[in-house]
Design brief:
Helix content is about 55%, strand content about 15%. The protein is built from nine helices and seven strands. Helix 6 links the parallel strand 3 and strand 4. Helix 5 packs parallel to helix 6. The longest helix has 23 residues. The mean pLDDT is about 90.
Length: about 230
């Protein structure tokens, strides 16, 4: 066998697909370790993650503007802080795990239960703020998440997840509960969405990505051009 062939670097697309599979499996393992988390424990993690996001708001805003070329630095800071403070505060007022409400008259009880691993699709336009929101939402509801960033937002998204994951792990979350694909390869994103260990797709992006998410064969919540509410005055 040719030694050069043996040691040839793996095709980047194949490597990205392999990474997606590995991170989906790792997230599933972390989710299994996270099962049984109480609302109080999940809320504690949300608080420490939100605090870390608030402290990193300026760094992440600069990374997002420099990498993507979109937006204004000061506005990106505000978007990050909006999710780290206002959105996190709103989440903490909600109950998402266990008994949510009881309707005695109609004999109905609503139970909140996690789904598993979420594939969080991240757009180029608002990468860090969207990542903050999706990671907070995943942990608040007892789930794991693997983020799949747009190729032109891969570094700032990865840094955002790194900050939030470090804070969560220091507070007791299992390693791998929050993760991010490194290169933003479309093939890897598709592989992640369709992977057997992924239970839900939470997608934000362009029309093509939204269509791909709805075609993944998984329950999907997607927002993109053509399917968002509008108010016109």
């Amino acid at each position: 066998m040719n030694n050069a062939a043996v040691h040839a670097p793996l095709d980047p697309e194949l490597a990205a697909i392999g990474e997606a599979r590995a991170k989906a499996r790792s997230a599933r393992k972390a989710f299994m370790a996270f099962q049984g988390v109480t609302q109080e424990q999940a809320d504690h993690l949300v608080r420490v993650m939100a605090q870390a996001a608030e402290e990193g708001a300026k760094e992440l805003a600069r990374l997002a503007v420099d990498e993507t070329g979109y937006g204004v630095y000061e506005d990106k800071i505000l978007k990050n802080l909006y999710n780290a403070k206002f959105v996190a505060h709103a989440m903490l007022q909600m109950r998402t795990l266990g008994v949510l409400w009881v309707d005695e008259a109609n004999r109905v009880t609503a139970i909140g239960a996690p789904m598993g691993v979420i594939a969080g699709i991240i757009p180029v336009t608002n990468p860090t703020s969207t990542t903050i929101f999706k990671c907070l939402a995943a942990v608040k509801s007892g789930n794991a998440i693997v983020c799949a960033p747009h190729p032109r937002a891969a570094r700032c998204c990865a840094r955002t997840v790194e900050i939030l994951a470090a804070a969560a792990e220091r507070a007791g979350a299992p390693k791998g509960l929050l993760d991010c694909l490194s290169g933003g390869e479309l093939a890897a994103t598709r592989e992640l969405m369709a992977h057997r260990d992924v239970a839900l797709v939470l997608a934000t992006g362009g029309a093509g990505m939204v269509r791909a998410a709805y075609s993944s064969g998984k329950p999907t919540l997607a927002v993109g051009p053509g399917n968002v509410p509008a108010f016109i005055e």
